[in-house]
Structure formats: C-alpha cells, structure tokens
Amino acid sequence: MLHLRAGKGGHGVASVHREKFKPLGGPDGGNGGRGGDIVLRVDPQITTLIDYHHGPHRTAPNGRPGEGDEKNGAQGEDLVLPVPSGTVVTTRGGEVLADLVGDGAELVAARGGRGGLGNKALASPRRKAPGFALLGEPGEEAEVVLELKTLADVALVGFPSAGKSSLVSVLSAARPKIADYPFTTLIPNLGVVTAGGERFTIADVPGLIPGASEGKGLGLQFLRHVERCHVLAHVVDCATLEPGRDPLTDLEVIEEELAAYVPHGELGGIPLAERVRVVVLNKADVPEARELAEMVRPDLEERGYEVHIVSAVAHQGLKELTFALAGHVRRAREEQVEVEPQRVVIRPRAMDDQGFTVQRENTADGEIFRVVGERPTRWVRQTDFANDEAVGYLADRLGRLGVEEELLKAGAVAGSTVLIGPADDAVVFDWEPTMAGGAELLGSRGTDARLEDRSRPTRAEKREAFHDRKDAQTQAREELEAERRAGWWTDED
Predict the structure, then answer these.
(1) Which of 210, 364, 468, 472 is deepest in the core (most CB within 10 A)?
(2) Any binding-site annotation on 97?
(3) Which of 150, 223, 149, 152 lies closest to 193, judged by CA?
C-alpha cells in the first residue's frame, strides 16, 4: 500500500501598490503556485518495488504563495516515482487504475492543488480594489497498491528445487541464486535468450506447491508473474527422492493450480489453460533420472505435451529446447492481437448543468442540507472566513450558481444547517437566505437600483411636481397658523 499526498496550492495575496506620489496605486497581489503532482513513471533501470515497501508515504512539494508587485508564487515540482515495467496500479478495493508497460508509461496518481488568486486577479470594474485573496487548494490524497507482474515470453514453472534457476543460468546470462534446498528463489529472475535470429525473455517463477492458487506458500504472489507469458514450460525433477513424487503426479498438481488461477480480466490476460505448454524433464545427467524420463515421455506425448529431456548441469538437450521455445514464442507473437490505444473521449458538461446537488438528510442532531458539488466545495476551500469581504464574495458566487434557490426547493428555511464540502471535512453554516426582508429588491453586491434609473422627466411632469410641492407648502403654513390662533403655542408664563 502506497500513501500519496500531492502538494498544496499556494495562497494568493492581497496587496496594494504603493510608490512615491501614488499611495494607493491599485491592487497588485500575485497568485499562488500550483502544488506538485505525484506521477508513477516506468523507468527501465528499476526492477523491483522494494523501495516503496520501506517508504510507503510520499508527499509532493507545495506551491509557493504569491507576493506583492504582481509576483506569482512558484509551482511545486512534480514528484516522479520510478517503477519497473509491468507494474499494475490498483485501488485498495482492487479497481485497476493503470497497467504501466513500456518505457515512459506514466500515471498521475495524485494531482496537486490549485493556487489561490491574488486580489489583482480578482479585481473587476465593479470591484476595483478587493481587500482579500483566495486560499490555495489542498492536494489530492490517494492510497494505491503497486503490483509487479513479470514481462517475459516464457515462464518456467514447477515444484521447488526442480532446477528452474539452473536452466535460466545456462540458457541466458542471468545469475540467479542456486542452492540445494527448497524455495531458494524468492523473486522471479529474468534472462534474455538468443536462438538463431529470435530473441526472447525467460522467467524463473518461484516454486509452486499444492494449494498455490489459494495463496499457500506465497502462491498467489508467484502465479501472478505468469499472466503475461506466452509459453509455460513445466520443469519436472526426475531425480527427486521425496515419497509420493513422480513426473506425472508433479505435472498434474501444477496443472491443477494453473487451471484454478484466474488472471485479471481487465489486464487482457487469457486463461492459463489456453497457453502453450512444454514439458522439460530435468536432471537427465543422473542415470536413474534419465531412465525415468524415457519411461514417462510416451505417456506425456500421448496427452499432447511437447517433451524435452535436458540436463542443466551437463548442458544436454539445451539447444533443442532453446530453438523449440523460440518457435513457440514467434508464433505466439504473430497470433497476438495488437491492442489499439484507447480513444480519449471528451464529454463536456452541459450548459445548463449546475454542477451540484442539494441532499436533505436526517441525522441524530436534526435535519441538515448537504451541498455536494465540485465547484461549491472548491470555493469553500478557497475562502478565508476571517475576512468578511471574502465571505461576501463566496456568498455572491454561491448565489449566482443557484445554491440558495435549490436550498429553498429542498425545504430549507432560515436557521437550517447547511454543509458544503466532503463529509469528513465539511464547512457548516447556519443558513440565512439573502432573499428575506425585501433583499430580493436589491441588485448584486455593490449596486443600487436607484442609481440605475436614467430616465428624464418631461416638462409637464416637472410642472406638476412643482405645483404639488407648492400646494404642500401652503397646506403646511395654514395648519401652523391655525395652531397658533388656537393658542397651542402660548407660553405658560
């Protein structure tokens, strides 16, 4: 399991340009830099994933914050993790994210967060001098499983100590560990074999035992390495002294395990039972083993197997085996269907797609309304709630998006609990609709409908308004005179 954390985006900055004779020269705050991505990339110099076993936590650099004088922050460098060819990347649940095969193949496993905008980028004709900036977004966090599946044309399979490592060492330049005890090989060994004008790779798959398809003896970790091989070569030990062991029984046990193992369908692997089979009767330098090999060869050929009697120690029968394997590999390559690269399908969002939904939920603390959507969540993360102007800017954005209308449709009222963001890190609001108390008669923030009325009254309208004012003045004077004559204004003295 590999734990990845991409870099955070840098914060934007709120700054005002100042110089001599220009104390308020306008906003000049720069944007924050983007956080670094985490990229898995195939490197031909890498052969194992052992480094990620000892260091499973990887973090990409963060973006730098912006500065005044319109200086944008530096972007965080991408963290490139080299992996060997044949690495399969899956989620914890087993979903295949990528099958990295070939030099340079890569996958962006975690994307860095966007940098926040400075007040220079937020300035507009209506908002000439913003006193706030947007915060940078956090980078993505991901947990992926890396699994290496050997890329080889021929896989040598068989019981432990059957002589597979010895065959690889004499057929190629590989130098695997060889010893006279079981499970000497713990990881597959690859070698390159040349037969005439044909070159192919051969893999020494660690020894299999009964129950390997169920995970016994690390069987699943061994069997996964044969998924990509064109030819399976059964290496049978004809000189074993273990009771109950003979070439036919060993072959039947390994065949049962191969048939029970199901390759991953999403990787395009064909069932192991449909692969080309070759039986290699090894250790023919021992006289008793040679006699046993000659005895069982007719039975194996009757079952349809191609049989080769060899000795890795005495170098007997190796040339014939090499050219036979090369022929099978060549035919398998010719029959292999070339996989066309997957077409990239772009599905743009519909013009009327709001990009969010409002969910009404009943919890132990009462009824809540959850706003789920990429844009509302991103806007909330970018808001500095310690700045009233930034909070007002967020309210404007949510209003233009139609969040308030959807909350009203869902049944929210003043004082309802509204959550925006992921379930584990949501921002909680006590909702107060801006449409209450006649606020719907107002325009957008910073505007006044009274200032937008540019109509001019006619001459008749002006004359009528003048006479109305004169009549109002005359009536007011008459009322004051009546009050004076009635003695309302007489002093008590």
Answers:
(1) 210
(2) no
(3) 152
